[in-house]
Amino acid sequence: MKKTYKIIPTIILTILILPALLLAGQHRVIRVVDGDTIVVDYKGKYEKVRLLCVNTPESVHPDKKQNIPMGKVASNYAKKRLAGKYVDLEFEGPFRGRYGRLLAYVIVDGVNFNLELVRQGLSPYYTKYGLSKKYDQEFRESERYARKHKLNIWGDPGLIQRYLRLKSEWGQYKTKASSPTIVQSKEWKFVASRKSKVFHRPDCKWAKKISAKNLIGFKSRKEAIASGKRPCKSCRP
Ligand SMILES: [Zn+2]
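A: This is the predicted complex of the input protein with zinc ion.
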């Protein structure tokens, strides 16, 4: 009978601790750089991680004019949520981006922190380098929520204006999957792929095959030629 008394507290303790153990990620957060960049211990190496699909206002930019109070708010929020935690990283597309940073969704306490930033209005849904492959709908919903509730960025008229302007530059909210990937600025008369020497009319069948990531545009034929590209033989721009 005595044994039972010892086992019961152990069972209770396990039940209490288990969820925390299950939710804890694999990688220790070493440092929170700012709202959208952290350093983690990734397989024994300290790696900088740039969070996918978010871009928080600057707080530690070398050009100090770019640092704004909302950047500090985002940075402090990230510190509060991530400092000292164990997180998981979820990758999609390229493992590393420019500057060699890992590109990932950060999962903390079982929650996708990238989405959380958008839902808190601390970042827009950042689509400059393409839409989220895994969470496009969730990002849109999170941003709608933040805007509706005027959270952080979406409660500041100056910032709202700035981010709406940026979003239109990113070609935000073009439908994916069902329609061709072409994301087009109204100003573009011609388009091309970064990876090809040919330029097209936007309605060319070849233009529609260019991935959003590689798509570039030109305001005039002259501009396209000047970039070193030649006209497509199919659409004859
Ligand atoms: Zn063409």
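The pocket of zinc ion is lined by residues 200, 204, 206-207, 232, 234-235 (CB under 6 Å). The chain has a mean pLDDT of 89.
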